[in-house]
Write a structure and sequence with these properties.
The chain has about 210 residues and is an all-alpha fold. It has a domain of about 140 residues: Tetracycline Repressor, domain 2, CATH 1.10.357. The chain contains ten helices and no strands. The longest helix is centred in the N-terminal third of the chain and has 24 residues. The two termini are about 40 Å apart. The relative contact order is 0.12.
Length: about 210
Amino acid sequence: MDAALERILQVGIRRAGLEDIARRAGINRITIHRRFAGKDNLVEAVLERETQRMLTEVSAIATTATTVEDRIEETMLHVLLQTRIHRLVTQLLRVAPEEALGFYTVQGERLVAIGIDYIVGMLTHAQSAGLVDRYDPRPVAELVARLAHSLMLTPGVGGVDFTDPDEARAFVRSTIVPLMKHGIAAPSSAGTAGRSAPASEGIAQL
């Protein structure tokens, strides 16, 4: 996978042949076929590994923040940044721009699914610890994961310029932090409409 990644970054996906990748890895093509169904399967594995690496970085960043609000803010800013500047995005756009849009559109479903599962796990853990309200985390996770994927392709389109660190931080602080703390508000009885279920008394801070 290391050899595949480096070759993709050099010439793009279409021109990164299995023979060349095998030679760079010091193995033969048959060995690759024993482990992967084909080139597409190998590329998917490379992409998934890079995504998992980014999420590992996110988990490490979370331990440096002191409050749940800060944890959400810093981790989400890192995710939004990395989905724009990761070398698999920027380099592929440089060496094979005609491939990049199609590739990340086709592979987007898998990327979003990985992001959703990670965020669901993070929110479920936070709920168990009493750090955020109790709500169904999957719709929130899907919104955030889809936002990150969208920003990978169109970072400067719309009312917020996510290439501007101050604008990106303000957006995350004012929208994503309360969304992940309280969930999506649902209609309820008079006097409580538009509010989520109440959190445990006093959200714990780390």
